[in-house]
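Deliverable D2.4 — example input (structure tokens):
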């Protein structure tokens, strides 16, 4: 994110602004994940494949006992995903779409033609907890890496499904009240509702800070079995 907490300009279209090391860190995280998840807007606004990247990262996955290619998960409450998006042209691993009952029959038909599976979880609002249990049960997902956008991040925080947060703070300022933040959407109304984090590590490379936070749970709360990154 930028130094003022933005993850994209006011246009809300993703543009890369991190360093080469930031991109390498993203691929390192993918190399440890069973699945990589992203929201529909992120997939549509930039030619992403959500795959493991170059051969060295695929070899790293195999050394860790993982499949060479990670699963790819797209989230869209109304199924507003472009069937012609770049991700559907790269058929190296299954593509799974999580949506709700708000999706029209026409969109559902078009997406089922390009994805390996489209599943509905919830009538109006996506039931992320149920969706993640399904990913674990049917697809064997133990570690899930979410790469945004902000509204999906916020929904995961709200549902208490985040174990770790990896942040790269970049030395740029976007500004603008319309520019999306790390956790976008409506946000919390009271401080007591805020997700609490604890700093696990901090490292500086050039002018960027690489931060890792763990979820700080209230006393007496049990962490969910399914972990996410």
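Example output (designed residues):
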């Amino acid at each position: 994110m930028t130094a003022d907490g933005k993850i994209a300009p006011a246009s809300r279209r993703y543009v890369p602004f991190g360093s080469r090391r930031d991109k390498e860190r993203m691929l390192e995280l993918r190399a440890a994940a069973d699945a990589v998840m992203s929201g529909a807007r992120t997939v549509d606004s930039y030619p992403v494949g959500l795959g493991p990247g170059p051969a060295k990262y695929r070899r790293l996955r195999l050394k860790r006992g993982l499949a060479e290619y990670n699963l790819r998960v797209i989230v869209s409450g109304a199924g507003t995903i472009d069937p012609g998006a770049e991700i559907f042209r790269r058929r190296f691993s299954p593509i799974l779409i999580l949506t709700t009952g708000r999706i029209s029959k026409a969109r559902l038909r078009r997406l089922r033609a390009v994805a390996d599976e489209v599943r509905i979880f919830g009538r109006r609002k996506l039931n992320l907890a149920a969706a993640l249990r399904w990913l674990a049960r049917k697809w064997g997902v133990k570690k899930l890496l979410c790469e945004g956008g902000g509204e999906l991040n916020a929904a995961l925080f709200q549902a208490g499904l985040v174990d770790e947060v990896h942040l790269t703070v970049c030395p740029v300022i976007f500004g603008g009240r319309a520019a999306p933040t790390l956790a976008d959407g409506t946000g919390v109304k009271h401080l007591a509702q805020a997700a609490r984090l604890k700093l696990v590590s901090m490292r500086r490379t050039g002018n960027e800070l690489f931060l890792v936070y763990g979820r700080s749970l209230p006393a007496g709360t049990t962490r969910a079995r399914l972990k996410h990154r």
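The longest helix spans residues 128-139.
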